[in-house]
Amino acid sequence: MTATLSAAAMPTFDPSTGERIADVPVAGPADVDGAVQAARRAAPGWARLDARERARLLKELAKRVRLASDALALADARNSGITLKVAKRDVGIGATRLEWMAEQSLELSGQAYPTAAGRLTYSVRAPFGVVAVIFPFNHPVMFALAKSAAPLAAGNTVVLKAPDQAPLAVLELAKIANEVLPAGVLTVVTGTGPVTGAALAGHPDVGKIAFTGSVRTGQAILEAAAPNIVPALLELGGKNAVVVFPDADLDLAVDGAVGGMNLGVCGQSCTSGSRLFLHADIREAFLERFLTKLAAVRVGRAIDEATEMGPLVSERQLAMVRSYVEGGRRDGARLIHGGDAPDDPALRGGWFIRPTVFDGVTPSMRIAQDEIFGPVLSVFTWRDEGEMLAAVNGLRLGLTASVWSRSLRAHDVAREIEAGYVYVNQHGGTALGVPFGGWKQSGIGVEHSRDTLYDFTRVKVVDARTA
Ligand code: NAD
To answer: In terms of domains, do 418 and 450 share one?
Structure first.
C-alpha cells in the first residue's frame, strides 16, 4: 500500500453490530497517481521475468494466503457481514484461482504465421502494463485475488481499489502481497468510488480496467476510460431467473432455490436467483417446502460459526432494500416471508433483514425489474413456456439463470435464456477455469478462464524479412 498524501479518511464498520471499527484513508488523485506510477515502474521488470518465476511467486502468494486464511476470513466476515463460512470458502477460491491462472500462464503464447519464404512472421502476447482492479464489497478477498490473477499472471502490474465498505481484509492481503511480490507489482488503495475509483479508472497510465459492480458504475467506468481508449472488462449486475418445470425434482429445486439466494452474503451476490418462475402445477407444493426451509435459516452475527445469514453491508443498503420491500407492497405484490428485521434482541444494532419473498409479482413491478442486491425474491407463476421465457428474457440484464427439470428439454430452455451462465438442476458457484460473464447490460467479457488470461494481453506481430 502507498502512504496517502490526502488527509481524508472514512470510517468502516462491523455490519453485525453497527460498530465503527476503523478509519481508512480516502486516496485522492495524487495518491492514486503515486500508486499508478509505482506500478508503472514495476511493470517492465515483472513483464520480463521468466514466466516460471512469475508463476512461482504467484503460487507462493496463494500459499501464504492459505496460511493466513483464518485471519483473512475473520476480517472479511467482521467488516463485510458475509458469514464466516462463506468468507473461509472465499479465501480458498481466491487462492485456487490465483494458482490456476499462474499455471495457465506457462502456456501463454503467440503464433507463427505461414507467410512466405524469406519472411518470418509471428505474434507475441504482451501485457498492457498497469491494470486497474475495482470491485464491490460482497467477496473482498476472493475478488481481490481472483480479479488480479489473470492480469498478474499475464505480466501486468495491478493497482487495486479495495471496496469502500469492507477494505480491512484486503489491506491484510496487501501486507502479504508486499512480502512476496516485488515492490509495485500489486498496490492497494482505499477510498470511495467517486474519488478514488474515478481517479484510477480515468488515469492515463492505466492500460486496462477490470471492474465488477453495478451497471451504473460500469457506465461511469466506460466513460472514464473512453478519453484514454482503454479497454474494460465489466462484470455487472444480475436479476437472475430460477425456472422450475413440473417434472423437476422438487426437493432438489427447493434446496437449489434457497441456496441460489446466496443468504451467506445476505443475497448480495450478482449470481443470486431473485426471480422464481414456478409452474402452476407444482407451485403450492414448492412454496410450502421453500418457505419452511427459509424459516429455518439461522440469521446471526457474521463472525459466529453457526450463522447461515448475516446482515446487509451497510445502513444505506438496508434502507435501499427496505424501500424495495415497501415498493413491492405498494405495487400490490403479496409479502409471504420476511421483509422485517429478526426478533433476536442481540442483533438490534446490526443491519439485518430476514429472507424476503413476494408472491403474485408481475413483470412490470419495480421489484421484478431492478437488481435489489439483498435477500429479496419475487415469485411468478407460469403455464405457457413462451410467455415464461419472454418474461425471463424481458430485462436488460442477463447474468445467470437456472432451469430445473428431469428432462433433456432443460437444455433447449437453457439455449433460449439470454444469460452468460445458465445452470441446470443447480444454482450457484462456477467450475474452475470455466468462463464467467454477463450478456446484455450484465457485462463485457469473461473472467476466470484462459480467455481472461489472453484478454489481459495485447497482440504484437513481428514481421521480418530474412532474405
Ligand atoms: P458499485 O458499482 O457501487 O461499486 C463497485 C465498486 O466500484 C466499488 O469499489 C466502488 O468504490 C467503485 N466505484 C463506484 N463509483 C465509481 C466510479 N465512478 N469510478 C470508479 N469506481 C467506482 O457496486 P456495489 O453496489 O458496491 O456492488 C453491487 C453491484 O456489483 C451489483 O450490481 C452486483 O450485481 C455487482 N456485482 C457483479 C458481479 C459479477 O461478477 N457480475 C459480482 C459481484 C457484484
So the answer is: no
